[in-house]
Amino acid sequence: MKVKLIETKNPKNIPEILREKSKEVKKITPEILNLAKQMIRIMNKNNGIGISAIQVGVPIQMIVVKNCDQDFIFFNPKITSFSKREVVYNEGCLSFPGIFENVSRPEKVKIEAKNIDWEDTEIEADGILARCLLHEIDHLVGVLFIDHI
């Protein structure tokens, strides 16, 4: 199945699917691996640092994030803790091309997820990676960055 990025240039006209809650992934299938490859291609083509499956019309709990020029795929990510200190940063989203807004998010975050080998993994992140993880996990519950402004 070929997918494409769901996007809008009008924050008042948000495609309904971007508000959907994504379902838990039970196992990695060849279709999910193919989807992950397409998401990475779309993210890189659009100079992004993160993308969630819902942004390509597939409501499953899968995100891809880029860190140090390496792409990481996570399934069923859950935030386990975050710092009280927040940082404001001019944030954008592949689904809202050309729109950037100042968003306050925790400076540090810890998440648990399944990795591409279906192993439990824990990620501690700060800075732009923390922001990216929080942003993409928001997508999985229908929350958009513009909801934070």
Write structural notes for this entry.
By secondary structure, the chain is an alpha+beta fold. The protein has a single domain, classed as Peptide Deformylase, CATH 3.90.45. Helix content is 19%, strand content 32%. It is built from two helices and seven strands, in the order H-E-E-E-E-E-E-E-H. The chain has helices spanning 30-45, 127-139, and strands at residues 50-52, 62-67, 70-82, 86-91, 101-106, 108-114, 120-126. A five-stranded antiparallel sheet has the order 1-2-3-6-7, sandwiched between helices. The protein has a two-stranded antiparallel sheet with strand order 4-5. The longest helix is centred in the first third of the chain and has 16 residues, at 30-45. The radius of gyration is 14 Å and the shape is globular. The mean pLDDT is 97. InterPro entries: Peptide_deformylase, Peptide_deformylase_sf. Its EC number is 3.5.1.88.
